[in-house]
Structures are given as structure tokens and as C-alpha cells.
Task: structure prediction
Amino acid sequence: LALLLLLVQPKSTTTTSTTTTRAMPVTLPATEPPTPPPETVPPMPIGECSYFGDPHILTFDGARPSYYGEGEMWIVKSDAIWIQGCYKGTIYTKGLAATNKVAVGGPFLKGHIIVVGSLEAGPITVDGIPVCQHFPETYRIGALGTVTYNAEGKLVDEATHVWEKHIVHMELPMGVRVTVLRWKNYVDFRVAMQKQPNQDGGCGNWNGNPDDDSTAAVFARIGARVEHGKVMFRHRTEVRLTDAELQLLAKCPADKRAEAHRKCQQELGNYEHHTGGLTMHACELDNCWGDNQHALRMAKEMGL
Result:
């Protein structure tokens, strides 16, 4: 009976349950385009302006004005950089002015003033204190820059190659480089720098137009002489006119002389009240002959 029960007992059944899990879609975060590298702004180009002789100029825009009257005038006048020239006549130029000294200062030098003059004009100074009294020598203006005095460097005027070189190299903030070649009674120099906001002066306004760098145009924009309170030299020049200059001024056509006088009255402002009448004549000389690069040659040819 047990065997019979075993034979008729139902077989156990194993049921396998299969659960199908559907994969949920995966949402990836949106990919942003790669950030482009910052634009590289090319550095502003370096321009060069040079002064030589009595004094002839090559402006940043390539114009060639001349300045023949004595006094203090702007070479570079901008918001940050100030460069001035002191012009004085010499016996070799029949009194027509040459650059006697150069002063460099302004906000970019944080109140410091560098003055370099001819060999006869006295020592190189920083803030009125003589520096570079040995040759060669380098003087440091704190962390702002250096003044180096040696015999190395390129001439501004090749006609001066016969003389022993005494050259001052200023390496200053904002990439400004001023090179002054000291001769016996005048200096030649060059200024290398980047264009600055509100720039003007004897080196021009650097707007790409050489036509508005003329002596008369510069005087009309910024005045014929450095205004009172802005002169960086310790003393103003005592303006003089030689007989040759007065005769050259007399050669100025009457209508041009009258126009020069009218302009100088505006351009000098109250400056003339502090300097006597000779500054007016010096200004007229510049307005009459500043567009003539060879006034000295003309004066010699006229026997003045």
C-alpha cells in the first residue's frame, strides 16, 4: 500500500517566475560649448619722435615743424606723461633757438622730475639733485626706472658724428624711453612711447594726420608756451632776440606778421604779462617761420 501511495503521489512542480525590468532612459546634462579663450589684445605700437638742431622735429605722425623762439614749450603733453623743452639761442645759430634742456615728469613718474641739459647747462638732475656725475653711470629712481649715462647709442643727427658722445638713456614706466644726446650748448633727443589719451605738443597729437602737427596748429591747441604753474624747470628762460632774429622777423610778410601777432595774443594768454614783450616777438617768429625747416640757412643767405 505504501508503495502504491508513492507511485500515485503527484510530482512536485517548480514554477520559475521571471520579472522583466524595463531600463529607464538616462538624461545626461546638457553640454555647454567650450568657453573660448580670452581675446588677446595686441600691444599698442611704439612710436618715435625726435628733435635735433635748432630745433627741427620729426613728429609721431611724420611732420617736420620747427621752433625758433626761446622759452619753455610742450614736447609731449598728455594725461599721464609730461615732457617739456627749454629752447635757447646759440651763437652758432644766430640766436635761433635750439633745445637747451629737456624735462620729463607727470603722474606716470609719481611726482619725480628728470632734467637733462647740454654739457654747459649743468648736471643731470632728478628732483633737483645732481645724479650720474660719473661717466658711465646708472641711477635708479626707486622701482620706477633708470637713468643711464654713457657713450652708447644711435645718433639723432648724423652730422654730429664728429663729436664725442655723451648720451642719457631714460627707461621709464609705461614703456617710455627718452634718449638725450648732450652736446656743448644744445641737446638732440628722441622719445619712444605708446600713444596716450589727450596727447599733444611739439611731437604732435599722433592722430595719423601730419598736417595738423605744424607749429601754428600746436600753438592754437595748447598755447605757445608752457602755462604758469606747469613749468618743470626750476627757472624760466630769460627770452632774448638777436639782431639776426629781429631782422628775420622783419622779413615776415606784413599780413602774415599781423596774423602771427593776433594768434600769439591768444596763445600766450597772460604769460606775456610775466615775461615782457620779447616773448611776443619769439612767438611771432615761430608763427612766421615755423613751417620753414631752413630758417638758419635762409638767414645766412640773406647776410643776417
